[in-house]
Amino acid sequence: MIRAATPTDIPAIHRLIVELAIYEKEPDAVKASHADLHHALFGDRPTAECLLAEVEGQAVGLALFFTNFSTWTGKPGLYLEDLFVMPTARGAGLGKALLVHLAGLAVSRGYGRFEWSVLDWNTPAIGFYKALGAKPMNEWTVMRVDGDALAALAKG
Questions:
Q1: What is the CATH architecture assignment of 2-154?
Q2: Is the pLDDT of residue 37 over 90?
Q3: Could you list the active site residues?
């Protein structure tokens, strides 16, 4: 079952994000608190949305996403920040079901794109995404400014 997350799902969402960080070999990288997630997903001006995949009432997968914008298409797009299915629940079609649901949201909302990033070493995920029709954007490099570098840039 795929459903939109509710505020009572924050502990499950946080747990799945921690599991994703462990899978991505960054077990200490999660700094988001329950309060941070609640504010981002359910605050006065939510900045992200979340879907949960459940098996027998237990959240075993998530898709956390937000809206971006393309100046070239003149339309918003859907950006998938995190897609994760617990290893014990893989192979049952939950990852595909989450992506199909998100593609349906993008189409129904009139979005021009559905995009996400994947780690170079995650060849099983890359193969899975390609099989669904996704294409790598190899000519693009993700750039990031965070932490002290972000604070320094903000000062000019």
A1: 3-Layer(aba) Sandwich (3.40)
A2: yes
A3: 129
